[in-house]
């Protein structure tokens, strides 16, 4: 390893949980990292193969952000101190998010900004939502990705629409794993 890195790989939001599970289950043995999934939906977190953290318990009652990014970001701030305690022992964090819903779209920017404020190295892997998701939730995707890029050391995006047009939607998790491994090997090993 390039340094004595303590690495955390975390997902934020329901959509990213499947990707985190895939990465965790398919990572080569050379990957030395801790994994955690953060979400507002306690039922979704039951599907996690890794440690979990429920955020927004008071606001959402554990029922999720219901596609509302404002609920996602408020849920993040409700638990900001607990998140700081979870991430403070690491110096490198990979954040996996899927834009398009409430928690991922709302909390990703706040999370990544917090990580940078804590002076951690931040790599963000995110999917760009389908056009219908963008319209449904009126998501300013360019604005969100610009902010993610600003606060991340590296931002890697995968556009769901492009993958679907290429008939490859079923391999998005594989692509996220490939991007994760590429960044890990270049920046960590």
Describe this structure in words.
The structure is a single chain. By secondary structure, the protein is α/β, with parallel strands linked by helices. The protein has a single domain (7-187), classed as 3-Layer(aba) Sandwich (Rossmann fold), CATH 3.40.50. The protein is built from ten helices and six strands; from the N terminus they run E-H-E-H-E-H-H-H-E-H-E-H-H-E-H-H. Helix 1 (14-26) crosses helix 10 (172-187), helix 4 (69-78) crosses helix 6 (103-117) and helix 6 packs parallel to helix 8. The protein is globular.
Question: What is this structure, in a nutshell?
Answer:
By secondary structure, the chain is an alpha/beta fold.
> What is the total tally of β strands?
6
Q: Largest beta sheet, briefly?
A: 6 strands, parallel
Order of helices and strands: EHEHEHHHEHEHHEHH
Rough outline: globular
Annotated CATH topology: Rossmann fold
CATH superfamily: Tubulin/FtsZ, GTPase domain
């Amino acid at each position: 390893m390039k340094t004595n890195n303590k690495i955390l790989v975390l997902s934020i939001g329901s959509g990213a949980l499947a990707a985190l599970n895939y990465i965790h289950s398919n990572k080569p043995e050379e990957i030395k990292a801790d994994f955690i999934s953060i979400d507002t939906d306690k039922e979704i977190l039951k599907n996690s193969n890794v440690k979990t953290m429920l955020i927004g318990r008071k606001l959402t009652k554990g029922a999720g952000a219901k596609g509302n990014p404002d609920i996602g970001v408020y849920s993040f701030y409700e638990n900001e101190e607990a998140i700081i305690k979870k991430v403070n022992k690491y110096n490198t964090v990979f954040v996996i998010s899927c834009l398009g819903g409430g928690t991922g779209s709302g909390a990703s920017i706040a999370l990544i900004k917090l990580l940078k404020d804590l002076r951690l190295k931040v790599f963000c892997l995110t999917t760009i939502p389908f056009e219908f998701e963008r319209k449904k939730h009126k998501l300013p995707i360019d604005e969100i990705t610009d902010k993610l890029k600003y606060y991340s050391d590296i931002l890697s995006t995968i556009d769901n629409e492009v993958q679907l047009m290429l008939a490859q939607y079923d391999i998005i998790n594989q692509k996220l794993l490939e991007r994760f491994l590429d960044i890990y090997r270049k920046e960590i090993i």
